Amino acid sequence: MKKRFNVTGLCVPQKHYMVDLADRLSQVRKMVDDGAYFTIHRARQYGKTTLLHGLESYLKTDYLVISMDFQKLGTDKFESANSFSLSFAASFLKELARNRKPGSPEADQETEIMRNICQNRDSTYSLYELFENLNHICKFSDRPVVLMIDEVDSAANHQVFLDFLAQLRGYYLEREARGTATFRSVILAGLYDIKSLKAKIRPEDSQKTNSPWNIAADFDVDMSFSREDIAGMLKEYEDDWHTGMDIAGIAALLHAYTSGYPFLVSRLCKLMDEKISGSIDFPTKQAAWTREGFLAAVRMLLTEENTLFESMDNKLIDYPELKQMLRELLLLGKPIENIPGNQGMRMAAMFGFVIVRDGFLYVANRIFETRLYNGFLSEESRNSEISQHALAEKNQFIRDGQLDVELVLRKFVDYYTELFGDYGEKFIEDDGRRLFLLYVRPIINGSGNYYIEARTRNYRRTDLIIDFRGQQSIIELKIWRGNEYNSRGEEQLSEYLDYYQLKKGYMVSFNFNKKKKTGIHEIALGDKVLVEAVV
User: Fold this and answer.
1) Quick check: pTM over 0.90?
2) What's the CATH number where 143 sits?
3) Mean pLDDT per segment of 10 residues, for the chain of length 535 residues?
4) Do the strands 448-452 and 471-479 form a parallel or antiparallel pair, or are they unpaired?
5) Range of the domain at 418
6) Which of 208, 241, 267 is the last residue of a domain?
């Protein structure tokens, strides 16, 4: 049986196409060798469980690895220290039995200790007794013991979990000061950084606001996929299927749209392999694994509901301030400086919505950006007159299967002048980009997608890239600031066209000069043609 792309749960090398984890495992191994306690906290579906699974195999020769999952314990097990301690001990016993060789002195001793614990339902058995037994096992183990716990978020709202972390911290400090036997390394995996758990706990419980695990080392291993990672995975696929794809080119596209977010990379590959291939427009795998097939997969991804997108939507509902911040960042082009310690910004990064670059926040990737745009715009498009105009006349903009961008601009000028011509400059600085997107989105919806080029997103200038059935168009949106400023903008757009290997570009200039001349005109600039719409 040939492998497949996997986006649900654990990835297994023998069953699934995967990137090579060897370098990441080597980096984590060094932290374990150093005796570090740390948290692997990344956004949803970022490969945490797969990394832990690979790490267990990678370490087992030199370490006794105990791998646990807090989701399996159940909420009721966190109701008291007694129920948690007994449940933890039982799970630990099960893992010991799985990892020890039958009949070894350590196995016999440890099994007896843990069996006595599990049989003891006395309510006096609590965290202290649990850790004394765990440390006894660590002391007499033939190998250093590494504890790995996945899905720690399942316990984050429970006081007993924070007490558990405090015990880990206490024994770690005692190990450093007195050489007391305890775990060599502890690895917790989840969405939340343990040091930020206070954000999930009720603010009225003041005793829960201090992090009990401030011993944790920074986890700086990059878990996103590089172009080289993606190309390696595609080569393995190509060796099986011989599609003739441009591996480097498809890897570059995948990285450009996803910024290496593991779920998005694998999902797009899975769509090309299983959904795009065999469709009317792409009847074979050879046809699907092309730039056009990739863009079709992007369109499909942006219209589907999946667990990652559902999780993101829920976060926007749970954290209204996060939604407002993202709206200002995208629709208004408002630059948002990253402020260390700001809880809203920390949440945005922790949930995977944004990245920090040069001290400012940017949406993490093109896929997230476009989906967020779609969500924000759809909330108001039903009541938007300009959106209804575009929707009613949608078909006239498609000629010979391609988007007539010049006609889109011409019609936008007409409707903007009619509906908003008397509004002032402040209005358009806040809403001009939103209005243009409200007009364009119904026209390309279903056959194209768009994104804002992050490098040029600001109050004065924005480059909008539209992909429509394989045809790419660049439209610069800007506020008129005089002829000299406009000329610089034209030159910048020309340079940008060189980057995309295009000969024709488009501009929408919002001009508030009373003597302005609205409409469409062409500008020859070297070997390129710029079509400018002035409103």
Assistant:
1) no
2) 3.40.50
3) 90 95 97 95 92 95 94 87 90 84 63 65 82 89 93 83 90 87 94 60 47 84 97 97 98 96 98 97 97 93 93 91 88 80 82 89 92 88 82 89 93 85 56 83 86 58 80 83 64 78 88 74 87 88
4) unpaired
5) 365-534
6) 208
